Amino acid sequence: PILYSYFRSSCSWRVRIALALKGISYDLVPVNLIKDGGQQFSAEFKALNPMQQVPALKIDGITLSQSLAIINYLEETHPNPRLLPQDPKKRAQVRMIADHIASGIQPLQNLGVLKQMGEKKMEWAQNCIMSGFQALEQILQHTAGRYCVGDEVSMADLCLVPQVANAERFKVDMGSYPTITRINKALLELEAFKTTHPSRQPDTPAELRA
To answer: GST C-terminal domain spans which residues (predicted)?
Structure first.
């Protein structure tokens, strides 16, 4: 497999975690979203992913984009360890939390939107994340065990950790979200979350390396 990724892309990080958890080795091709006006806008990358976004994964003779679609494919083709619970109710909760982040928070504060916001981008990003986290905190109080849904790592957790990293980057005060903070801390102790961290990628700038 070949993963097209950017070190700081939270959507790419979700996929890196899934690949790590499932023990799938891959080649990483960095796509710098800032350099050269954004390498994702090159004709070469547009041919690969017409949405001109990372991640994209070449695997088994197909190219997939959209992080949750990629993770679902990996789940179906490499079922262990599972990232979707067997119990239908818990599985629905995992998908709900993943969608809440992947559709309800992240797209509102991604690079393309922030460019449009100009000087207000920091304030805009904070407001989008805080309103999303208020809801998420409430949801997690009902679903969480050690992790987002019970005590098994799931697709919801793969979405949570990168989104918390975004929140910290945009200087969101995490004091109001104790459940999110607790789960995030537990997940960051796991090897798959550590090795895939933005500070440890081949394309991470020297000053941001861990």
So the answer is: 87-206
User: Does one domain contain both 130 and 168?
Assistant: yes
User: What pLDDT is recorded for position 111?
Assistant: 87
Q: What gap in Å lies between CA 109 and CA 125, rounded to an integer? A: 5
194, 201, 173, 160: which is closest to 10 by C-alpha? 160
pLDDT digits (tens, 9 = 90+) for 125-154: 999 999 999 999 999 999 999 999 999 999
Residue 100 burial by Cβ neighbours in a 10 Å radius (0-12, 13-18, 19+): buried
Residues 121-147: b if buried by 16+ CB within 10 A, e if exposed: beebbbebbbebbeebbebbeebbeeb
Q: Choose the final residue of a domain: 14, 47, 81.
A: 81
Buried b (16+ CB within 10 A) or exposed e, 26-62: bebbbbebeeeebbbeeeebeebbeebbbbbbbbeee
Q: What is the CATH number of the domain that holds 66?
A: 3.40.30.10
Edge to edge, what strands does the sheet with 62-65 contain? 27-30, 2-5, 56-59, 62-65
Six token digits for residue 115: 């460019």
Which backbone phi and psi does 77 adopt, to 5 degrees?
-95, -20
Residue 130 structural domain: 88-193
